[in-house]
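(Structure overview)
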Amino acid sequence: MERSHRRPSRLLQSMLLSIILALAIPADALYFYMEGTTPKCFYEELPKDTLVVGHYKAEHFDTSMNTFTSHPDIGIFISVDEVFDNDHRVVAQKGSSSGRFTFSAADSGDHKICFTPLGAPSTGGWLSSGQPVGGIKLTLDIAIGVTSAIESTDKGKILDLVQRVKDLNGRLQDIRREQIFQREREAEFRDQSETTNARVVRWTLVQLLVLGVTCAWQLSHLRAFFIKQKLT
């Protein structure tokens, strides 16, 4: 009887310990832990022509700060294989500690999506280092379909770029109108200058003509005067 009571008590203790250990790790479906260079894979059944957009962020456990922080030496290798087509690889992307990946399902079927840490130091697990199992925490956000929230943010960026392009085109149109206005003003100024110069030339010619006629009249008058003086 004593043995039968001891066994359930030990079983209860082990269950309580497992529950406590499970509660010690924050529960969040958007991230998981990785150890060394061991890949983490999951399968997703996708319809044909389905667009998949994902954002990821890898963080390394800093023992001095007792928390996960970004590390520039850590990278992530992303691979996507078509399981229904003899594991035909459609994505093989090597990125930094944070980034984005996209792919479109060519055919309907299961797709294996794997993440492999690069340049991550190996840890001894929870019992040896006092940290959660796996020295890498990978935060993952995957959206399936073109109407996802991630694509909506991208559309917002595209719309912002389109608006900027429209603003630049408007400024170019303003600059062109200003250039045309300046050319018209230059043409008017050139016409006025040519008209003024023509008037100056004509007035000069008139003055020269009047001066010539005056000189000729004076010469003829003086000649007649001198002739008249000789006769007398």
